Amino acid sequence: MEKYFFIIAEHCVCIQFKDTSVNNMQLLPSFSPFQTVTAFPADDCLSTLTVDDELRPVKDKKLVRKFDTGNGDTLVYQLPDGGYQFIIRDIHNRDCCLLICNHNFSQCQCALNGDWTMRSFGLNDALMLIYAFAGSFHQTLLIHASCIKYGSEGFPFTAKSGTGKSTHTSLWMKHIEGAELMNDDNPIIRVLDDGLPYIYGSPWSGKTPCYRNVKARLGALTQIERDHKNWIERLAPIQAFAVLLPACSSMKWDTVIYNHLCDAITRLIETTPVFTMHCLPDEEAARVCYQTLVANR
Fold first, then answer.
1. Helices 255-271 and 237-244: crossing angle, nearest 10°?
2. Residue spans of alpha helices (H) in 101-193
3. For the chain, how are helix, strand and coil distributed in percent, rounded to 5?
4. Are 70 and 12 in contact (CB under 8 A)?
5. Distance of alpha carbon 127 from alpha carbon 101, whole angstroms
6. Kind of pairing, strands 45-51 and 11-17?
7. Phi/psi zone of residue 78: left (φ > 0), alpha (ψ -120 to 50 degrees), beta?
8. Number of CB atoms found within 10 A of residue 241's CB
């Protein structure tokens, strides 16, 4: 059994491969910036995933959800002990990964299937699910956003798929000197013991290979909405909650995980401004947003 340790948003994650002849770290190139040579005891890890192709599905289970990730369907089953079983499929509807987790996602196992592309996809998706749901117990949110780092602060932009959050961050990088991409799809937000929220890069960045092991103080959260002119508004707490909740990875049918998620979002709203940027995909949009979020505070 080969073990590897990673520090992702200051949480330790352990991945161990039972048979490295087929499954190994070559499946996870985006994890390289997060790897550490330090070995951590199991109790200090957010989660441990064992990759073992001999794993078999649990027969006694209940289907609770089937959802489309945009890259394929994932089937979610509830187990009698409170844990979960997932079947992760790719865009071609091929079974890539069987994932079985305990109730708080601290101990997980998976079996991979298919060629290298299928195995890499399945393992990456499994780890993203594990991190999102294990993190919910620790004031940690995996948020669907494109994130700019400007100075010591991070500014994530959320939007419905296809609205143009990546377009907006690209406009910042083109027209706002000093703006840099932190992550283009799944940055991580944590509320630390000092009560302040921070944002981190992650090994998951959608179609843009931006896997940066970086940390910044969370400056603001902004929803992007298309409009015929550029203007920005700060949201009231109830509006802010409604914007942030669907942007975070969650399992609404799991009351414990869902309540932890809602608590973390509430703490974010108490400390961080949330905006909606109504905009065109142009230079002025980036400058209007920058003036509100950074320059005129």
1. 130
2. 116-135, 165-175
3. 30, 35, 35
4. no
5. 11
6. parallel
7. beta
8. 16
List CB contacts of 115: < 8 A, sequence separation 6 or more: none
pTM of the model: 0.95
pLDDT at position 167 is: 95
- Predicted confidence (pLDDT) per residue in 208-262, tens digit: 999 999 999 999 999 999 999 999 999 999 999 999 999 998 888 899 999 999 9
Contact 279, 226 (CB under 8 A): yes
Name the nearest CA neighbour of 145 among 221, 227, 228, 232: 221
The DSSP annotation for 84-124 comes to EEEEEE-TT--EEEEEEE-TTSSEEEEEE-SSHHHHHHHHH
Q: Half-sphere exposure of 220 toward its Cβ, with a 13 Å CA cutoff?
A: 21
Give the tokens for residue 169. 């961050």
Whether residue 296 is predicted with pLDDT greater than 80 in this model: the reply is no
Strand order in the sheet with 107-112: 35-36, 2-8, 11-17, 45-51, 107-112, 95-101, 84-89, 73-78, 62-68
What is d(CA 118, CA 148) in angstroms, rounded to the nearest whole number?
A: 31
* CA atoms in the 13 A half-sphere facing the CB of 177: 0
Helix (H) or strand (E) holding 239: helix 237-244
Identity of the residue numbered 159: A
List the beta strands (DSSP E) in 177-230. 179-183, 188-191, 197-200, 215-218, 221-226
CB atoms within 10 A of CB 170: 19
pLDDT, tens digit, for every residue of 194-206?
Answer: 889 999 999 999 9
pLDDT band of residue 69 (cuts 50, 70, 90) is confident
Q: Are 295 and 232 in contact (CB under 8 A)?
A: no
